[in-house]
TrEMBL record:
<feature type="binding site">
    <location>
        <position position="42"/>
    </location>
    <ligand>
        <name>L-glutamate</name>
    </ligand>
</feature>
<feature type="binding site">
    <location>
        <begin position="236"/>
        <end position="237"/>
    </location>
    <ligand>
        <name>pyridoxal 5'-phosphate</name>
    </ligand>
</feature>
<dbReference type="InterPro" id="IPR015422">
    <property type="entry name" value="PyrdxlP-dep_Trfase_small"/>
</dbReference>
<feature type="domain" description="Aminotransferase class V">
    <location>
        <begin position="6"/>
        <end position="340"/>
    </location>
</feature>
<dbReference type="InterPro" id="IPR020578">
    <property type="entry name" value="Aminotrans_V_PyrdxlP_BS"/>
</dbReference>
<dbReference type="GO" id="GO:0006564">
    <property type="term" value="P:L-serine biosynthetic process"/>
</dbReference>
<feature type="binding site">
    <location>
        <begin position="76"/>
        <end position="77"/>
    </location>
    <ligand>
        <name>pyridoxal 5'-phosphate</name>
    </ligand>
</feature>
<dbReference type="InterPro" id="IPR015424">
    <property type="entry name" value="PyrdxlP-dep_Trfase"/>
</dbReference>
<keyword id="KW-0032">Aminotransferase</keyword>
<dbReference type="InterPro" id="IPR000192">
    <property type="entry name" value="Aminotrans_V_dom"/>
</dbReference>
<comment type="function">
    <text>Catalyzes the reversible conversion of 3-phosphohydroxypyruvate to phosphoserine and of 3-hydroxy-2-oxo-4-phosphonooxybutanoate to phosphohydroxythreonine.</text>
</comment>
<comment type="subunit">
    <text>Homodimer.</text>
</comment>
<feature type="modified residue" description="N6-(pyridoxal phosphate)lysine">
    <location>
        <position position="196"/>
    </location>
</feature>
<dbReference type="GO" id="GO:0004648">
    <property type="term" value="F:O-phospho-L-serine:2-oxoglutarate aminotransferase activity"/>
</dbReference>
<keyword id="KW-0963">Cytoplasm</keyword>
<dbReference type="GO" id="GO:0030170">
    <property type="term" value="F:pyridoxal phosphate binding"/>
</dbReference>
<keyword id="KW-0808">Transferase</keyword>
Length: 361
């Protein structure tokens, strides 16, 4: 069977075991004689799958009782608008920390809804680092503080999170949810498009502290957290196939030994590639400052445009997919989400070493 070594940033590789299980169950899900896409979303069979996905995420992330887990549509990008629409009243300001293009986009949408402020940014340094938590000062009237926990394009990641006291901390975890243990109780909202560590595109997970869900009839129903929470995320027809695959990815994550074990694997995987960069005598240059390096997206450049395009051409020929940097910044990027096995990272590191030797010769 042909399977590529997939380093795509998103949609990302899914675990092979998940795809195989879906294939086995494809025509007869939950013994219904139907595929999951043919089940009514109001049927007992589908509800079981839907609730199992939510329950598994609660178990894996140790989500406290006072949080609601919502499965929504519209991607993480729709959350850029829903968050201020639901959490930013007149007379208050929303604080944002800029660590890359996705935080800029989140801020851009919030500005359309209400007052905002940027309380820290690494933009002037080409987003090579994460601001120090001790330097962050929130505004007195902050309705929430928004951060992007992992910057998919620049390859930086928060290691410690800002202490926000009574101000809810809102985190876009699209590209590192479920990659390491986090204390959910420190956050007001965690949201993530599923298509990196959770499953296929089409679902956005929103983990929201219950007291932040308030009734507000002026918000359109589909953009209203309260409506989705009251309807167990089944207000309208959900993406049933995507939710089913989410449930399988979460079961797979439990079988791997849970988030603690996944985090250990991710550390090991990232080290293999960062070691190849650091041991290259400057041939490969990491974009991120070492203490801000992402364990999910490893961004690097080569000494010249010629070397880079040669590298990208040859790495593809060698059977590695998705090594191009994001179109907005170029360079190279290896996305090593949970489903990417250690062996693929070792093979990439070996390729990098061999390419360097051949290029210099
Ligand atoms: N936030 C981050 C950190 C991302 O990496 C992405 C997509 O790559 C998005 C938001 C946008 O997600 P979506 O395409 O689900 O709207």
């Amino acid at each position: 069977m042909k399977r590529t070594r997939n380093f795509n940033a998103g949609p990302a590789a899914l675990p092979l075991e998940v795809l195989q299980r879906a294939q086995n169950e494809w025509l007869n899900i939950e013994d219904s004689g139907m595929s999951v896409m043919e089940l009514s979303h109001r049927s007992a069979e589908f509800e079981k799958i839907h609730n199992r996905a939510i329950q598994s995420l609660k178990e894996l992330m140790d989500i406290p009782e006072n949080y609601e887990v919502l499965l929504l549509q519209g991607g993480a990008s729709l959350q850029f608008s829903m968050i201020p629409m639901n959490l930013l009243p007149e007379g208050k300001r929303a604080d944002y920390i800029l660590t890359g293009s996705w935080s800029e986009k989140a801020l851009k949408e919030a500005k359309k809804v209400g007052e905002t402020a940027v309380v820290a940014s690494s933009k002037d340094d080409k987003y090579t680092f994460i601001p120090k938590v001790e330097d962050i000062k929130l505004n007195e009237d902050a309705a929430y503080l928004h951060i992007t926990s992992n910057n998919t394009i620049y390859g930086t990641q928060w290691k410690d999170f800002p202490q926000t006291g009574r101000v809810p901390l809102v985190a876009d975890m699209s590209s590192d949810i479920l990659s390491k243990k986090i204390d959910v109780s420190k956050f007001g909202i965690i949201y993530a498009g599923a298509q990196k560590n959770l499953g296929p595109s089409g679902i956005t997970v929103v983990i929201i502290r219950k007291d932040l869900i308030t009734d507000n009839d002026s918000i359109p129903s589909m953009l209203n957290y309260s409506i989705h929470a009251k309807n167990n995320s089944l207000y309208n027809t959900p993406p049933t196939l995507a939710i089913y695959l989410l449930s399988l990815v979460l079961e797979w994550a439990k079988e791997q030994g849970g988030v603690g074990k996944i985090a250990e694997n991710n550390e090991e995987k990232a080290k293999v590639i960062y070691d190849a960069i650091d041991g290259s005598d400057g041939f490969y240059k990491g974009h991120a400052q070492p203490d801000s390096r992402s364990l999910m997206n490893i961004t690097f450049t080569l000494p010249s445009e010629e070397a880079e395009s040669q590298f990208l051409k040859e790495v593809k020929q060698a059977g590695f997919v998705g090594l191009n940097g994001h179109r907005s910044i170029g360079g190279c990027r290896a996305s090593i989400y949970n489903a990417v096995p250690l062996s693929h990272c070792q093979e990439l590191a070996d390729f990098m070493k061999k390419f360097q030797e051949a290029f210099k010769a």
